[in-house]
Amino acid sequence: MRSLDEMLALSPWTRELSPAQLAQVKASIVEREFPPGALVCRKGEPSNAWVGVIDGLVKLQCVASTGKSFTLAGIPGGSWFGEGSVLKGEPRKYDVVALRASRIAFLPESTFHWLLDSSLAFNRFLLMQLNERLSYFIGTLEHERLLDLDARVAMSLVSLFNPHLYPATQFQIQISQEELGYLVGACRQRVNQALQVLQRAGLIDVDYRGVTVRDLEGLRRFAASSQ
Q: Which residues form the HTH crp-type domain (predicted)?
């Protein structure tokens, strides 16, 4: 399992911090472990920490009064999220749910704002992070409305390869078909059918460990051709 030090080494925003700044960041972070299905953060709670996934996989979701849920994004290990709510000091607008056993880092808002005041590199990182996040959500809305499920599964895999948002993602993705189903809003059986379509097209390999992407650009083209 990935350690906090390994996760921070993967995070682009730490690379230009001074040793003293990095030491203060490490000293302020609180680590917690969550079992599958546990609420990591609850909608409506104060956004008093920037959240990082040290190891595991979580999803951001909204739940309607009818009980129907909608997944906004899946966040794999090595990634940070929730910066917008911390910047605005607003209550969190979504639930965060662990899809598998996950270890989570909470960087207190006081340290977050201290980094804003003391690190130009951190400010540049956040500008890029917010821009990438906006592009992701615009793309997700487009895909939900225009793509069939096979193409949505393809784009869900592609989205995990954003090097800024998800710097730790490798071509062998340890994700189950059930977890992928949560991200695209489909049952495991239907996701399995979509993965078989993509495998027959030579774009991925599927085995018990997860999904290995053989042709990332091919996955993008597959999704684009379905619009």
A: 147-217
